[in-house]
Design goal:
disordered N terminus
């Protein structure tokens, strides 16, 4: 009889443990489902971040080694969507260190979103920071567009934003000003 009683005690106890283990498993599955949703969100976020980063202009790479200058380079520069933003014509490129490249006799042509030419920048001597994409010079620089010519002694130009500063004896010559600005009427003297 005793063995029979043990059986009755063992069966409900085993059933209770199994039910308890099944309930624990169900509770553990809920966080796993939540973790799967979070993982899916993270994958979607990572894909969106990669898409955003791909639209950023790429880092310019100038093929020059520390011990050997590169001469006569022509380098197109595209944004993340594949549109041509700039075209570099470099007379001589010299690697200064891991971040900086010296450029001599450089001309940069920038382009509008529709692909038409926007302006050209003539730089006799300049330095490009390949990490920040900023070109700087302390030598005479000339910027030309269809409607103006701008010169200065110093310049910093950010290739990512296509914005810069010009300093040191800045001069601007505006072409066809009469076509751009309507003539102002002369006041009548009574």
């Amino acid at each position: 009889m005793r063995s029979f009683r043990k059986l009755f005690v063992v069966i409900p106890l085993a059933t209770g443990l199994a039910v308890g283990a099944f309930a624990l498993q169900k509770e553990e599955e809920k966080p796993r489902t939540k973790d799967k949703k979070e993982a899916a969100k993270k994958v979607a976020t990572d894909k969106a971040d990669k898409a955003d980063k791909s639209k950023e202009p790429r880092k310019i790479e100038i093929p020059v080694s520390k011990d050997h200058d590169a001469k006569g380079l022509k380098i197109p520069y595209f944004d993340g969507d594949g549109k041509k933003q700039m075209f570099f014509t470099i007379g001589v490129a010299s690697k200064i260190d891991e971040e900086h490249v010296g450029l001599a006799e450089t001309q940069i042509e920038t382009f509008e979103d529709d692909g038409s030419s926007e302006m050209t920048i003539d730089l006799p001597q300049s330095v490009l920071n390949v990490n920040t994409s900023v070109i700087s010079t302390k030598k005479h620089v000339e910027i030309k567009r269809d409607d103006f010519s701008l010169t200065g002694q110093t310049m910093e130009f950010n290739m990512k934003t296509k914005q810069g500063t010009l300093g040191g004896g800045v001069k601007m010559l505006i072409y066809n000003l009469e076509e751009e600005v309507p003539a102002t009427p002369t006041p009548k003297v009574p």
